[in-house]
Write a structure and sequence with these properties.
The protein has 106 residues and is α+β, with helices and mostly antiparallel strands. The protein has four helices and three strands. It has helices at residues 2-12, 14-28, 49-55, 65-69, and strands at 31-35, 74-80, 86-92. The chain has a three-stranded antiparallel beta sheet with strand order 1-3-2, sandwiched between helices. Helix 1 (2-12) runs antiparallel to helix 2 (14-28). The longest helix has 15 residues, at 14-28. The chain is globular, with a radius of gyration of 14 Å.
């Protein structure tokens, strides 16, 4: 997914990233945001506080008791594209996701 969203940005700009991430949100219920090498949000949506913190490498604290007992729903991944540009993808995965949470960013 990460390589696809970066490719969408490098080929089609912010509008393509927004479209792609909207499709991911609708189909997989994943809230994801793409940031450039300066830390600027290029996903075309307002960046929530949890995403800002996660982009800086700070995982948001668990607010609910159940969140302390389950794997973190937050993901952060850094990618250097073929163009040489560095991107950060941050995501909030849906609760009770039966699939492998690590496979999402692959």
């Amino acid at each position: 997914m990460f390589a696809k969203v970066v490719n969408a940005y490098e080929k089609g700009g912010e509008a393509d990233v927004r479209r792609y991430l909207d499709e991911v949100r609708e189909s997989q219920h994943v809230r994801a945001y793409l940031l450039d090498e300066q830390g600027q949000n290029i996903s075309g949506r307002d960046l929530p506080r949890w995403a800002e913190a996660l982009a800086k490498g700070v995982e948001p604290p668990a607010r609910e008791f159940w969140q302390r007992l389950t794997p973190s729903p937050f993901r952060r991944q850094v990618l250097v594209a073929g163009s040489g540009h560095r991107y950060v993808l941050v995501a909030f995965l849906p609760p009770n996701d039966p699939s492998d949470r690590g496979a999402f960013l692959g």
